[in-house]
Design a protein that fits this description.
Layout: H1 2-15, H2 17-25, H3 29-63, H4 71-96
């Protein structure tokens, strides 16, 4: 689970580079800290979602079912990533205009 969290955290931090750059230019350290904290939290949620989904599919297969698939977890992971990206890039756009 920690590996999944680290992978998703890295992805979210890469997506947050624009806000880090703009906030650093504007000397907004609180914004950088808040975005980093939100990336840690959202990355943790994404890691837990993926881990629980994988575990449920494994348990389904162990019982003997052959068509085990969790499509809902993929959708929620996309929603987490897209939502985070939209919010972070909107914040970067907002900071850029000041």
């Amino acid at each position: 689970m920690l590996l999944l969290w680290a992978v998703y955290l890295a992805l979210l931090l890469v997506l947050a580079i624009p806000v880090f750059v703009v906030a650093r230019r504007r000397h907004r350290t609180a914004t950088i800290r808040n975005v980093a904290i939100s990336a840690i939290v959202v990355g943790g949620l994404m890691g837990m979602t993926r881990y629980t989904s994988d575990r449920l599919v494994e348990q389904c297969i162990e019982v003997g079912n052959t068509q085990c698939f969790d499509a809902g977890s993929t959708g929620i992971l996309w929603l987490f990533a897209i939502g985070f990206t939209v919010v972070v890039w909107a914040r970067a756009w907002n900071l850029r205009g000041r």
